TrEMBL record:
<feature type="domain" description="OB">
    <location>
        <begin position="193"/>
        <end position="272"/>
    </location>
</feature>
<comment type="subunit">
    <text>Component of the heterotrimeric canonical replication protein A complex (RPA).</text>
</comment>
<keyword id="KW-0235">DNA replication</keyword>
<feature type="domain" description="Replication factor A C-terminal">
    <location>
        <begin position="465"/>
        <end position="584"/>
    </location>
</feature>
<keyword id="KW-0863">Zinc-finger</keyword>
<protein>
    <recommendedName>
        <fullName>Replication protein A subunit</fullName>
    </recommendedName>
</protein>
<dbReference type="Pfam" id="PF08646">
    <property type="entry name" value="Rep_fac-A_C"/>
</dbReference>
<dbReference type="InterPro" id="IPR031657">
    <property type="entry name" value="REPA_OB_2"/>
</dbReference>
<dbReference type="InterPro" id="IPR047192">
    <property type="entry name" value="Euk_RPA1_DBD_C"/>
</dbReference>
<keyword id="KW-0479">Metal-binding</keyword>
<comment type="function">
    <text>As part of the replication protein A (RPA/RP-A), a single-stranded DNA-binding heterotrimeric complex, may play an essential role in DNA replication, recombination and repair. Binds and stabilizes single-stranded DNA intermediates, preventing complementary DNA reannealing and recruiting different proteins involved in DNA metabolism.</text>
</comment>
<keyword id="KW-0238">DNA-binding</keyword>
<keyword id="KW-0539">Nucleus</keyword>
<dbReference type="InterPro" id="IPR013955">
    <property type="entry name" value="Rep_factor-A_C"/>
</dbReference>
<dbReference type="InterPro" id="IPR004591">
    <property type="entry name" value="Rfa1"/>
</dbReference>
<dbReference type="Pfam" id="PF16900">
    <property type="entry name" value="REPA_OB_2"/>
</dbReference>
<comment type="similarity">
    <text>Belongs to the replication factor A protein 1 family.</text>
</comment>
Length: 599
């Protein structure tokens, strides 16, 4: 067995509120893992499991949590019970008046080792007495503190007043020094927390006006070592905070509302988001050490073919070609500027990436720079393409190892290489998802409108078919389904003896509801109205019409939520356009679902 020396006394130093926490946080202690337990987050589409561990210095032990970016070390068996680790980066928060160590980064020194020492609980609960020296503590054993909640239920409390006075700082500064809460640990169940985060993206102020009034908003993307979260300010909070928050700077932020993320409006990988209010506190971090840096998870350009359409990814490449500034008409009738860049990398693939709005107008680098893109969206135009949007981030010639390596390769001869573009006939996850769907005939709604305007075909005699990819913006709720005959699917009418079908000339105890939905859809060019029937409705609502109508009759509030969940979904539509006397352009459509939209 290897001779490993644990950092004696570190557990008690972490518990002792009078310790110099700058020194402790930078100590990189060597510790042993005594126990590993998986803790599930609340259910939902973005559920992420966490690992609760117990760490020991050979004399005492503490409860701890692994940051989610370290989950793979447990999942892949690299670390487990009795492993020896060096904790390179961590934070320590107060949870139910006890210290909880959150491990942000670590090195595995010994995978399998015998238990070292007979550690006692560094924070015994009153009446527990000494911890058992013969038994490894378990996350819920009597020797440990009161059960530590999962990430979704952790709450922090302010540092002790005595420690604040010793530090000679204000209450908020004390929190910033000692009780910084990790972004990935935020949930609606915390009341007192402070995060230290970098603003990686800041939107312009946007305004709206509808029947309920007028307003304005802006949003930011915040990042620390553990993850990202989106923050949004409305109305008065815009006036208070817009000028305070600057892209690229680091801030201490507290007293914002943690709420469930509206996934139709964000691609940030977090089940929660922050709502900024007038009393939200924002203070710029002047400390030049331990600042959050942007974390990338780069995908090589050759690997884009393995991603589904609308996936969000990070890429880095050399900008080999810069297109001219152009424009298109958006679905809201506004003119939006665009510019296309051609990226290449060491995989000898190339891809087109589209910049929009100010990003397109302000781009002026013509000397083949290395550019890192965070959070761009994958499209399938021309096989594979990329597009930036409001929450994406672009960094030109970043000072990171990947950029230096790419620059060296390109200048040493990579610029003379032949680069392969993605073709439409790719395989992989996206190809499987759209099997049987002819993407080469996909049209934008603007192209469809132009085609119909210029056609000489009599649509009443010969319908026109087309394929389009669009996002659902609105579904009319009034007549989302109709009571149908279980035999012939014709509409039935309720009478004294049941539900009567005139075609079959018989009555039924209850009808078989079928979808007939009218929806507004949109793509990047414009909006259109589609009409769909039962097959399409079952795909869109993920349930038969009978089930949806049961919800409507029993709980109108729940029914409204189900309807809201359809907004923002993206599908591939196969449509038939036929001219009718009551509606010149009525689209019968059969729905075929593509990847779920992340915008």
């Amino acid at each position: 067995m290897s001779n490993v020396q644990l950092t004696a006394g570190i557990c008690l130093r972490l518990v002792d509120s009078s310790e110099n926490y700058d020194e402790v946080l930078n100590s990189k202690p060597t510790m042993q893992i005594l126990s590993v337990k998986k803790v599930s987050s609340p259910g939902g589409l973005n559920q992420v499991d966490r690992y609760r561990i117990i760490v020991s210095d050979g004399e005492h032990f503490l409860q701890a949590m692994l940051a989610t970016q370290l989950n793979n070390l447990v999942d892949e068996g690299h670390v487990g019970k009795y492993s020896i680790i060096r904790v390179d980066k961590f934070t320590c928060n107060l949870v139910q008046e006890r210290r909880l160590l959150i491990v942000l980064d670590m090195q595995i020194l010994v995978k399998n080792h015998e238990k070292i020492g007979k550690p006692d609980n560094a924070q015994p609960t009153p009446g527990d007495g000494a911890s058992s020296a013969q038994q490894t503590p378990a996350p819920h054993s009597a020797a440990t503190p009161a059960p530590v909640p999962s990430t979704s239920t952790i709450s922090t409390s302010a540092p002790q007043q005595q420690h604040q006075q010793q530090q000679g700082q204000s209450n908020r500064a004390g929190l910033n020094r000692q009780n910084i809460f990790p972004i990935e640990g935020l949930s609606p169940y915390q009341n007192n927390w402070t995060i230290k985060a970098r603003v990686t993206n800041k939107s312009d102020v946007r305004t709206w006006s509808n029947q309920r009034g007028e307003g304005k908003l802006f949003n930011v993307t915040l990042m620390d070592e553990t993850g990202e979260i989106r923050g949004t300010a409305f109305n008065n909070a815009v006036d208070e905070l817009y000028d305070k928050l600057e892209e690229g700077k680091v801030y201490y932020i507290s007293k914002a509302k943690v709420q469930l993320a509206k996934k139709q409006f964000t691609t940030v990988s977090n089940e929660y988001e922050l709502g900024f209010e007038r009393h939200t506190e924002v203070e710029e971090c002047r400390d030049t050490q331990s600042l959050p840096t942007i974390r990338y998870n780069f995908v090589p350009l050759s690997g884009l073919q393995d991603l589904v359409k609308d996936a969000i990814c990070d890429v880095i490449g050399v900008v080999k070609e810069v297109g001219e500034l152009g424009s298109i008409n958006s679905k809201f009738g506004k003119t939006v500027t665009k510019r296309e860049l051609t990226l290449v990398d060491k995989s000898n693939f190339s891809v087109r990436l589209t910049l929009w709005g100010k990003q397109a107008e302000q781009y002026s680098e013509m000397n083949e720079p290395v550019v890192a893109f965070k959070g761009v969206k994958v499209g399938d135009f021309g096989g594979r393409s990329l597009s930036m949007f409001s929450s994406s981030m672009m960094t030109i010639n970043p000072d990171i190892p990947e950029a230096h390596a790419l620059r060296g390769w390109y200048d040493a001869g990579g610029n003379q290489a032949s680069f392969q573009a993605h073709s439409n006939s790719f395989s992989g996850a996206a190809g499987g998802a759209l099997s049987g769907f002819n993407r080469s005939e996909m049209k934008s709604l603007q192209e469809v409108n132009d085609m119909l305007s210029n056609t000489t075909t009599d649509l009443s005699e010969k319908p026109v078919y087309f394929s389009a990819r669009a996002t659902i913006m609105h579904i009319k709720q009034e007549n989302v389904a109709y009571p149908a005959c279980p035999t012939c699917n014709k509409k039935v009418f309720e009478q004294h003896d049941g539900w009567r079908c005139e075609k079959c000339e018989r009555s039924y105890e209850k009808p078989e509801y079928r979808y007939i939905i009218t929806m507004a859809v949109a793509d990047h060019t414009q909006q259109a109205w589609f009409q769909g029937f039962n097959e399409a409705g079952e795909v869109i609502f993920h349930r038969p019409a009978n089930k949806l109508m049961e919800i409507k009759f029993e709980d109108e509030t729940k029914f409204g939520k189900v309807m809201e969940e359809t907004i923002g979904q993206q599908f591939n539509f196969t449509c038939r356009v036929k001219q009718e006397t009551y509606n010149p352009r009525n689209c019968d459509m059969v729905s075929r679902k593509s990847s779920r939209s992340t915008t």
